[in-house]
Amino acid sequence: MANRRLAPASEQPESFAFSPENAEWAKTQIAKYPEGRQASAVISLLWRAQEQNGGWLPRAAIEAVAAELGMPNIRVLEVATFYTMFALEPVGRFWIQVCGTVPCDSCGARGLKEMLQARLGPPGHVSADGTFSWLEVECLGACCNAPMVQINQDYYEDLTPESLGQLMDDLAAGRPVKVGSQTGRVSSEPQGAVNTLTDPTLFDGSRVGAWRKRFEEAGKVETPAAQTGEAASGTQQAAENPKPARPDVGRPIERPASDAPAQRAANGETPVKAEDRADAAERGRSTAKHGSARPGDADVLDSPAKRVAEGEPAAGDQGHQDVPARDAVPQQPEASGASAGEVAAEAEEARIAGALAALPKDASPERKADAVGKRPPGLDAARVGKPDDLTRITGVGPGNSQRLNGLGIYHFDQIAAWSRDEITWVGTYLAFPGRIDRENWVGQAKALSAPAQ
Ligand code: FES
Q: Which residues line ligand 1 (CB under 6 A)?
């Protein structure tokens, strides 16, 4: 790590003042910030002071900037000593900052430092002819092309001790040098050969054009010639401005509890949002009805899930609650792409949504929970007056811990023993269906209640 001390007193100038031109420039920088926020200009002013002083910041310049901005000296000193872009000691005509952070270190930065030490002496030391000085600094953000150095304001990357030595020779002699990678890499492309994303059609627009053409042709085949009006404009819009695929398709994502159908039903809202009805109806056909019904059967279409999806009461006209049995094996949709677990979870979600939708909007949490699951047995009080700290279960905060205590749940082993119906009951009672499973409360409780080995 770089030594961040001010230069010795013998090297410090007596005073520092901005040149008239720089003083004027400083005023414009300070004027960019609202009254009382002039300190925000500290880095720009320090940088300009460093440039004016030949590439390093003496104490007097730091104090002059502090006075200009109405800041305590120590605050400006903190900034100047934190950022290695500010040199605190005199530097050579070419100031070499060598990155010594892990990626550069693993790729050979130590060799660069050894070479500089041998050629120039210790860090901070200016070479006898005043041409070079060097310093080790932390990551300069060019890790992909490690190891690298910054010389004055340019980056030189993919270095070896030899190529850095050659670079220094060229700089000292005034010969032109190449900034960036010294091995010919362009930007941060792979070492050696570029062997991915090499197909030019990815970049010339032809691939996107072909896809769009196919899309438009498919639209023509599927759409009768007489199609007009809104539908035609929809097809046109889809071709020109296709919507992205649903982001959660095929991926296990955590749906916010407040957006789940059962949650919406628990809140007295329509369980399935209008825009989701088509999807829900499709799922209802596949999963909500048990037995031998196939997707598309008419009686399947009369399921509670389907009625819920269409915004109707799940129980139908006669108040009959046609809710599938909890132990019903959901039918696997054909070629849906969903796993058996996802299908079962969706069927369970539809079952709960249907059951909750059949209740009055102001039903109590207990009544809602009773409609979908089974209340777990509770205790009158914690055993020996010592409840477990349920907040050790990830997902159980102090509030939920209290509510669980209110149900007579005080100990990890009680939660560890919850059945599927009891999990559903508690999840509905606490108004966050599915979360107990997602956070694996039961598994956590089992681990916490297991006797220490
Ligand atoms: S580690 Fe050296 S530039 Fe990032």
A: 99, 101, 103-104, 139-143, 146, 148
